[in-house]
Specification:
alpha/beta
Length: 349
Amino acid sequence: MKQNTYGKEAFNLRLTVLRMVTKWPLLLGLVLLGTLLWSQAYYVKTVVLYDDDQYITTASFHVEYAVDSESQIGMVYINEASWNTFVQTDVFQEALKQELPADMPSGYDASHIKVHVASDLRVPSVEIITDQPKASEYLLQAFETVMMQKVPGILREVESVALLDDMKYASSLYPVVQMGKAYALGAVLSGFFVIVVFLLRETWMDALWLPSSLWKRYGIPAVGTLQSKALAENIRHLFANKKKVAVCPVTKETDPAQMLQSLKDNCGDEHLQDWYPVPAPALSPEVCKELREAEGILLVIESGIRGNAVLEPVLEYLQQQECNVTAAIMADADERLLKAYYCLGKDEG
């Protein structure tokens, strides 16, 4: 028996994809659950736990620029960034303070003002957001006065400013809830994490699904599975000169007598008449004496998510006891998985 060769085993993308396909209901369910949890967490954080009361007032203005024709507006107009810079200057803030009423709450200034310029360069709009409705209303009134009465005298590019519309009273500002984006982001993140966890689990659990893995990793020939078409021929070839063959399971859950009977039903009784079952080494360690006396050993291996993890200690014990395994058979292989795997491999070839 050769030594384990983990480092020489390439990542089997075909097998991994097939494993994901066979587990698609579980994976899809986990993605949907993750999407639901993410979106509900977003909703709770954005809406349920939202306690930052804010109030908004808005207004729109029409600015007449000091130009001879409309074609010259593009050369002198004030863009959005310039408007927002201007309202934060000391000149504008001083003018704004002069228009605020005496009962204006303290701590509110032009920092709460945001100017927007839409497609029409002559129509800037403003929104003022504070945590008190009166503060938003007073700031808007003062802003309107400064814009219409003082800005034309401060900025030489502006000839006049007229008020188009405004909000007389502040309204509550509610958070913008974008559940569609929350669901989409939740689905992407959930799908990513589900795939990563699935791959880590497949690697960590040391799964065994293919009979060919026995030779690649342990140097043990595999006769296949009970449903393999070449099972009888493989047994005749690998056990050609061996009559007394011990059928030994890896785990105590496998019944060697029943396994031997299944082999006789599938391969015929004439070649297996001297074969005999022995218990698993974990169940009866003294069975190694019988195994050493046998002319050949057929190891019955359980495939599955922890197949290699269960197999390795048994192989190590048999090696220590100088019990040389002739071949192995996978007792409970996933036949659908194997069929799909080798069919895809045939197409690739």
